[in-house]
Specification:
Blueprint (H helix, E strand, L loop, with lengths): L31 E8 L8 E6 L25 H10 L6 E5 L9 H10 L3 E6 L4 H7 L5 E5 L7 H5 L4 H15 L2 E8 L6 H14 L4 E5 L7 H7 L4 H4 L8 E3 L5
Parallel strand pairs: 2-3, 3-4, 4-5, 5-6, 6-7, 7-8
Antiparallel strand pairs: 1-2
Bound molecules: iron/sulfur cluster.
Amino acid sequence: MSLAVDQTVARPGGLLRAGGDGTGPGASSLAIAGLAPLSTCDWPGRLAATCFLQGCPWRCGYCHNPGLIDPAVPGAIPWSAVRDFLVRRRGLLDGVVFSGGEPTRQPGLPDAVGQVRELGFGVGLHTAGAYPRRLAVVLPQLDWVGLDIKAPQTQYEAITGLAASGAKAYAALDLVLASGVAHEIRVTVDPTVHRGAEITALVADLRAAGAQAVVLQEARPLGARPDYAAALAGRRLRDLLPEPPADVVVRESDPA
Ligand code: SF4
């Protein structure tokens, strides 16, 4: 999840819609940290704008957007500015990706997704599955999901710092696999926690469960917590998995 803030759209504006269907907070309640106006990689095969929502309940050492974790940080861009931007991009973009942080944390997400669809865009979501019940609400409106599965369930606490995180992520996995929504399951290979054989077994389990695409991502020191970057100590994905499973995409990162 790469964060790029286009300040040209971070301008004040009136709220275009009170928000929602009256059953919950509307899109205008969203704390939006940034908007990347054009991404070719956040939704594979699509040209998308990416909307980064503030706040995440987990504390992964390798998080490269740590500024997006604190839910108390106010948004930098009003939803009305995002919407104005999208109106100007109709016909030029395929879709919008909601990313974070953990975008399902914010109850205004379903309304925002609905508004984006009404404007004629496809909608993608990046999530780590921290709020499976909220994911279930928004899933029927999505065209694509990039779901992080960080580890076998028993290893989650070592990565996220929260004991209950594994059960939530795997509940989210069940929802995505049962939904029929196009998806990609992303596994960040963490040499401070994982062994190569564990990743190989996890990929096989995900494939057997019906995952359409499995991507191995490399944990990187850039932007990570200093203690995590020190623990990583230059270890690379290729050190753990010299021969990755044949049926995965491997996304290595610049070690700088
Ligand atoms: S779940 Fe994602 S956004 Fe949240 S701390 Fe972990 S890497 Fe960062």
